[in-house]
Write a structure and sequence with these properties.
Distance between the termini: 124 Å
Helix content: 55-70%
Number of strands: 2
Strand order of the largest sheet: 1-2
Oligomer: single chain
Radius of gyration: 36 Å
Strand content: under 5%
Shape: elongated
Structural class: mainly alpha
């Protein structure tokens, strides 16, 4: 029988009932009301729903489908393990009665990353459109053949088309997903406002950040407290402006994440790290690797930016790449570590990843796609092709330090030293400027552009190390080849004093004689002769005095003061 849903009159309890009533200022009676489960569910306050349901269980107040609602709330709080436990307990009690929860178990296992177990549970569920949609999503992670099979079962209804759009999105086919969402918007615009978020997310992935922001604003005008939408808006503002703009938008979500949006707390922490340029990455991101997929990728990026190539490689090496960004990160990690340890195998692997992305139909005309092809050709030492691809995107990223570094190197490799010097000098990042590769290429450009003094200044700023020794060798040999003998002599002089081998002495001797010849030809200042003689006399070799006597004799004949050099 149906029980009455009308509340009893407190006054029926005699005088005691009066203590249960409150009278407001208008003199009207106001009763206390106990929160209802559906109030929490409809308000998306799943924490409140869990609290209420657990409280009712503790009082043994059994309600219809109480455990199913509890699992539902845990699922929406992304606590899939607790939801899964409830569903499995229900099956243990009455497998026949609750056989419909197999599809729920499949969903929990899917989000826990247990795709084989998800598929096993999904197949046990009674046939239904929901079952086939769930298996379609699972197949998207496990089997291309199965994906095609379940694709054929999809119907031209909203739920199935949304599943198809989701698979397109996960595979990076963002335009195909947009086409489906827009078609549904035309049909169900008033009923499915969340489609605006999906469309905005696709445009975000396509780098159309202004369009994404515009579409997103329509949803936020109706649901201003949506955690997903606020987060996407923050990410969009970060791309359009800077990390501070994104962080400002995220503050709204941060306030909500502490209460009704508990599930968003991890997302807020993760994105704040990104917006702040990696600040706190080592503290925040590692625990989130199995919670937020992007956490692993952003931790890889952090390690790459901080030259921790081995750590970056270890994090990404076992990841089964499924998106262009994952292939790119695997390529960068392999290339960086390969160059650091001299592994040609890792470099070849990186080359393959870059070529896979850059040659794909979906990425070949994008900026990242062309950068990938440039990187591929860079590793193959095909620098004319590198310049073709980098030139095609120069207009869009000419202020990027990494772009200028690669463009400058490619230009220098082809002997275009003037332009190479301009791009290398435009770099602002200290991380790059402190790299010996950068220093050595800039020094070579200075020398080839007849600015040896600037190359020498680069050496003088370096601490004594193997790298400074290598730079000295570069200056000595490049200046010698280009006839800039004074700075060649200075470099060979230091090398000769560090390691007095015959090779350095011969280089020093030749450079000093070259300076003397240029003085005679009036292409070098006579004042340098004194320093040349001083450098020669710092070498203990029987040829020194013979060369010095000739120089001194010429100096006397041409009235060139040598002071104590004589």
């Amino acid at each position: 029988m149906l029980m009455s849903r009308s509340k009893p009159d407190p006054s029926a309890n005699g005088g005691a009932g009066g203590t249960e009533r409150k009278v407001n200022k208008a003199g009207k009676k106001k009763q206390k009301s106990f929160p209802k489960l559906m109030d929490f569910i409809e308000g998306r306050d799943y924490t409140g729903a869990v609290t209420l349901l657990e409280f009712q269980k503790s009082l043994n107040r059994s309600a219809p489908d109480q455990d199913l609602w509890l699992a539902y709330a845990y699922f929406h709080l992304t606590d899939y393990a607790k939801a899964l436990k409830i569903y499995e307990d229900l099956l243990a009690v009455d497998a026949e009665k609750y056989n419909n929860v197999y599809v729920n178990i499949a969903a929990c296992q899917f989000f826990l990353g247990n795709f084989a177990k998800a598929e096993e549970a999904g197949k046990k569920a009674p046939d239904s459109p929901l079952k086939f949609r769930t298996l379609f999503h699972i197949a998207g992670k496990t089997s291309e053949e199965a994906t095609k099979e379940y694709h054929q079962r999809l119907r031209d209804v909203v739920e199935d088309q949304l599943s198809l759009a989701a698979i397109h999105y996960l595979r990076g086919h963002h335009q195909e997903a947009i086409d489906i969402y827009k078609k549904l918007l035309l049909q169900k615009a008033r009923d499915y406002w969340a489609l605006h978020v999906y469309v905005a997310l696709c445009y975000y992935k396509l780098d159309y950040y202004d369009v994404a922001a515009q579409v997103l604003s329509q949803y936020l005008s109706v649901y201003p407290d949506s955690a997903t939408a606020i987060n996407l808006k923050a990410c969009t503002f970060c791309r359009l402006y800077n990390g501070k703009a994104g962080e400002a938008e995220l503050r709204v979500l941060d306030e909500q994440a502490s209460s009704s949006f508990k599930y968003a707390q991890d997302l807020v922490k993760h994105n704040l790290v990104v917006f702040r340029g990696g600040e706190g990455a080592l503290q925040v991101l590692p625990p989130l690797i199995d919670i937020i997929p992007e956490a692993r990728l952003n931790l890889v990026i952090y390690h790459l930016k901080n030259d921790n190539y081995q750590q970056a490689y270890d994090l990404i090496k076992d990841v089964e790449a499924g998106t262009p960004s994952e292939y790119v990160l695997k390529g960068v990690a392999n290339a960086a570590l390969g160059q650091e340890i001299g592994s040609r195998e890792l470099s070849r692997t990186a080359q393959q990843y870059f070529q896979l992305v850059g040659g794909s139909a979906s990425e070949c005309d994008t900026i990242p796609g062309r950068q990938c092809m440039a990187s591929c050709f860079f590793l193959m030492n095909q620098f004319p092709d590198v310049l073709v691809y980098l030139t095609s995107v120069k207009t869009y990223i000419y202020t990027d330090d990494s772009f200028n570094f690669n463009f400058g190197q490619a230009k220098a490799q082809l002997g275009q030293y003037k332009e190479a010097e301009e791009y290398l000098m435009a770099i602002q990042a200290e991380r790059i400027k402190s790299d010996y590769v950068y220093t050595s290429w800039l020094a070579r450009c200075h020398i080839m552009n007849q600015k040896p003094s600037m190359a020498w200044d680069l050496y003088m700023k370096m601490d004594t190390s193997q790298e400074s020794f290598s730079l000295l060798t570069l200056i000595a040999t490049d200046c010698y080849r280009t006839g800039q003998f004074y700075y060649s002599a200075k470099a060979f002089d230091v090398l000769d004093r560090i390691d007095g081998t015959s090779e350095y002495w011969e280089g020093k001797r030749g450079a000093c004689i070259g300076v003397f010849q240029m003085i005679i030809a009036q292409r070098e200042s006579r004042d340098t002769l004194k320093e040349v003689i001083r450098m020669l006399r710092q070498t203990n070799n029987q040829q020194v005095e013979y060369i010095v006597r000739i120089m001194i004799r010429w100096a006397k004949a041409n009235v060139v003061p040598l002071d104590d050099a004589e």
